[in-house]
Specification:
Shape: elongated
CATH class of one domain: Alpha Beta
Bound molecules: glutamic acid, zinc ion
Strand order of the largest sheet: 1-2-3
Strand content: 15-25%
Number of strands: 10
CATH superfamily of one domain: HUPs
Structural class: alpha/beta
CATH architecture of one domain: 3-Layer(aba) Sandwich
Order of helices and strands: EHEHEHEHEEEHEHEHEHH
Length: about 300
């Protein structure tokens, strides 16, 4: 779709408003792109209408604008991309790479999130069933730009995973890979809660024959009570009138230098300064990668 030596993106899910943790991720990906003169695209990951908070899409974009972010090109919405996803799922089904699974949640409970392959050779009807992709018994690994080496054995730690849900909705893992490739994303910068999704995404990229982007996972921001800020928690939305102080707080969370004069600046001035001082080597590592996992 696009070609440039650096294409980054921010890909919010409208299941809630933008919170501090998502600001940190947005800021890191923005600064990483702009510091090398790269493009920064915006993609709304609106795959799950039942979980969407009404008004969240507009609120997220509005907050980003108030915080001084500028994205390139038109917003891409995953709700408009179903044909592309369906085409790939159908191809994999007809090649026998993917298969229908009729297991209930209850049936899978004892397997602690690793699918044991029950329906692999059952030949279930594709309609009204979840669709899973077969994974190889292979250890996947990649070099994260901050978190260094990350490894995961897809067969043992994940198992065949869902690419389309029984209710007909496409899975995040599938859509993110198809769209990152379609948008020509060279660099994925996002929260460390997605570290352990990356091996699945590398595998899907391999199946699609598309290049893997570089990855940089930023530490998760924890609330004072130790809970991760994220989709699964009700986190407070970012206040429109707190752009400068919250951007500065996000910069500190990313280990970046902060000039005290910036407290009096506009969000645009803070971003401009931060682009010039962006230093990936200062981003803290996640202490314990297990902590970053979301089950
Ligand atoms: N939509 C995902 C989220 O909001 C982010 C996906 C990604 O950056 O790969 O958590
Ligand atoms: Zn099954």
């Amino acid at each position: 779709m696009k070609s440039a030596s650096y294409i980054g993106r921010f890909a919010p899910t409208p299941s809630g408003y933008l919170h501090f943790g998502s600001l940190v991720a947005a800021l890191a990906s923005y600064l990483d792109a702009r510091s090398v003169g790269g493009l920064w695209l915006m993609r709304m990951e609106d795959l799950d209408p039942p979980r969407e908070v009404p008004g969240a899409q507009a609120a997220i974009l509005d907050t980003l604008e108030r915080y001084g972010f500028e994205w390139d090109g038109e917003l891409v919405s995953q709700s408009q991309r179903h044909d592309a996803y369906a085409q790939i799922v159908n191809r994999w089904l007809s090649h026998g790479l993917a298969y229908a699974c009729t297991c209930s949640r209850k049936q899978l409970e004892p397997f602690a999130g690793v699918y044991p392959g029950i329906c692999r050779d059952a030949g279930h009807d594709w309609e009204n069933a979840a669709i899973r992709i077969r994974v190889p018994e292979v250890q996947y690994q990649f070099e994260d730009r901050v978190q260094s080496n990350f490894q995961q054995h897809l067969g043992r730690e994940v198992g065949d995973f869902v690419i389309k849900r029984r209710d007909g909705l496409f899975a995040y893992q599938l859509a993110v890979v198809i769209d990152d490739a379609w948008q020509g994303i060279t660099d994925v910068v996002r929260g460390a809660d997605l570290l352990d999704s990356t091996p699945r995404q590398l595998y899907l990229q391999e199946l699609l024959g598309v290049p893997a982007p570089r990855y940089l996972h930023v530490p998760l921001i924890t609330q004072p009570d130790g809970n991760k800020l994220g989709k699964s928690y009700r986190s407070p939305p970012l206040a429109a009138d707190q752009a400068t102080p919250l951007l500065l707080r996000a910069l500190r969370a990313l280990g970046q230098p902060v000039d005290s004069q910036l407290a009096h600046g506009t969000p645009q001035e803070v971003l401009k300064w931060a682009i010039g001082h962006w230093n990936v080597a200062l981003i803290p590592q996640v202490r314990n990668l297990e902590e970053a996992r979301i089950d």
